Amino acid sequence: MGLIKLKCPSCGADIQFDESNDFGFCTYCGTKVMQEKTIIEHKGEINVTIQKPVKIVNNDFETKFANAKNWAKIYFDRGPNLVTHGTKKGYDAVVQYFSDAELVGANESRYYVEFADFYVRANIEGIKNKTRVLNSRDTLINHYIFCMDNAISYCDDEKEKQALTKKKDDTVALLKEELGKIKETKAGCYIATCVYGSYDCKEVWTLRRYRDNTLSKTWYGRLFIQIYYTISPILVKTFGNTQHFKRTWQRLLDRIVNNLKDKGIEDTEYRGR
Questions:
Q1: Helix (H) or strand (E) holding 126
Q2: Options 1.10.3470, 1.10.1740, 1.25.40, 1.10.10; which CATH number does 59-179 get?
Q3: CA dihedral 240, 241, 243, 245 (to 10 degrees)
Q4: Which residues pair with 37 in a beta bridge?
Q5: CA 102 to CA 67: how far, in whole Å?
Q6: Which of 27, 160, 178, 221 is 20 to 30 A from 213 (CA-CA)?
Q7: What are phi and psi of 101, to 5 degrees?
Q8: Which pairing describes strands 54-55 and 45-50: parallel, antiparallel, or unpaired?
Q9: What are the C-alpha distances in Å from 245 to residues 32, 66, 194, 207?
Q10: Sign, Cα dihedral of 253, 258, 264, 265
Q11: What is the pLDDT of residues 45-60, one digit of tens each?
């Protein structure tokens, strides 16, 4: 028996398997691929025509994708407070539901389109009603572009690709116009960002969660935040470039972060302010 060559309908990889088998598995993404055989009788001979592979429905993805879309609808229609995912609430919870779907369907164009739409709407509406803040116009726009570029790359239909490209370009233009009217808010963890070198790292995500979900809930917590953001820029500007300053504060912050993690505060990506 010979080998037949096919293209995986999920990841696009070139694969091959024994022509005597009715199906095989992609060695790159694991998708089950079937071959359709049309048997034609012609003058006593049997000709076998290999047609394009049939994509198997990913039921796990379909279930989790539908679940994510449902929670996103609840988020907008009934309010963020009604959406939970484990210890996560509101925006973070919806993002986690989408992440669950991505884990089993990262090559699905529909996933990226749906998440991109949620991401833009949730952030724009949140910024306008002051439940979210705009830290960086470029970051928000670039993340949308990243999602839509993935959607386009995983799309098999050329007309749909063109439609998605137009949708991306039109939305980016609208985002630039809308976000241009809004002032960026620089609410970084000044000392923490200086010490760890990034506003978006595990240690700072933990500290930001503690600030937003615990400290900001009490008057003395809010007072501490206000004092911190008043003094912190001065300290960073004066001593931020010295190794002694960074080593001293990192030892202190490492202990604080580890203590917060022991109390259940997560260090996963945080999309709050």
A1: helix 109-128
A2: 1.25.40
A3: -20
A4: 50
A5: 12
A6: 178
A7: -70, -40
A8: unpaired
A9: 56, 49, 10, 19
A10: positive
A11: 555 554 555 556 788 8
Domain ranges of the chain: 3-55, 59-179, 190-262
* pTM, to two decimals: 0.54
Is the Cα torsion angle 219, 269, 200, 251 positive or negative in sign? positive
Non-local CB neighbours of 147 within 8 Å, separated by 6+ positions: 112, 113, 115, 116, 119
The 10s digit of each residue's pLDDT in 72-122 is 999 999 998 899 998 888 888 898 899 899 888 888 999 999 999 999 999
Task: Say how far apart CA 57 and CA 74 lie, in whole Å.
Answer: 26
Extract the runs of DSSP E, i.e. beta strands, from the chain.
Answer: 3-7, 14-18, 23-25, 32-34, 37-42, 45-50, 54-55, 84-85, 88-89
